Amino acid sequence: MEPTLTRKSKTTKSIYRKVFFALFSCFLILGCSSARKISGNDTDTGWTKLFNGHDIKDWFVKINHHEVGENFGNTFRVEDGIIKIRYDQYGNFNDQFGHLYYKTPFSYYHLRFEYRFVGKWQTTAPPYTILNSGMMFHSQDPRTMLKDQDWPISIEFQLLGGLGDGKPRPTGNMCSPGTDVVYKGKVSPDHCINSTSKTYDGEQWVKAELIVQGNKLITHIINGDTVLQYSRPTIGGGVAHGYDPKYKQDGKLLNSGFIALQSEGQPVDFRNIEIKQLPITDR
């Protein structure tokens, strides 16, 4: 049998209950808030790091005038969690355009990365290469490239820096070595198509994204803004030289290929290179 409670003891017990439930509610609210925060971070799932921040063992090097796998002049190096492209061991540049390829091809995907231009341009490189680099995709396998092939048959997500002269110089453009694309409803006659991006001067990091849906639609994004769209990448066109003719099958639609970072005379850094594979739709 419970003892009979006085009015005072009943009041005290009631106060304790209110305090307990108030504290319990606070903990519950904080717990839900934390859960929501974690859940919010988890929505950005499905991404895989192509660059591990330590080395480039998962990548192939191919530089013009050199065999595949020869990282001439330590062009592609990893320091401070960054892939750095440098030419301090070159001497004369001698059109030694290079590319660093991830080891496997992709077809439907969302790629994101950050880049910045740094240091001094290699003065013996062609003038158009100043503050100029790129991310190649739908590229031929680097192991099919000949020793003196300058550019891979591919599509280029071209990256440009502002020249500091106040004139517009967009980044996230499209260039087409050995390929063609359909832009605004027709095959583009131009080797490069400018995007609508802003101009980015100096040594600032720029966020770039590439959404590739096989040969259906390709989207370029710079710092969150969609700046260019086109479709039907196809082998054709010119610009690439020194290739094995059996890989230059003009008219062949490109549905997949390798991804590569470009070196063409301007020091540049890359970091946070990640990919999310997308569902494959009917081709």
UniProtKB/TrEMBL annotation:
Q: Tell me the ranges covered by the 3-keto-alpha-glucoside-1,2-lyase/3-keto-2-hydroxy-glucal hydratase domain, including all copies.
A: 46-276
Q: Which InterPro entries match?
A: AL/BT2_dom
Q: Which GO MF term does the entry hold, naming one? A: hydrolase activity
Name the source's superkingdom: Bacteria
Q: Which Gene3D superfamilies match?
A: Exo-inulinase, domain 1 (2.60.120.560)
Protein name, as recorded: 3-keto-alpha-glucoside-1,2-lyase/3-keto-2-hydroxy-glucal hydratase domain-containing protein
> The organism's lineage?
Bacteria, Pseudomonadati, Bacteroidota, Sphingobacteriia, Sphingobacteriales
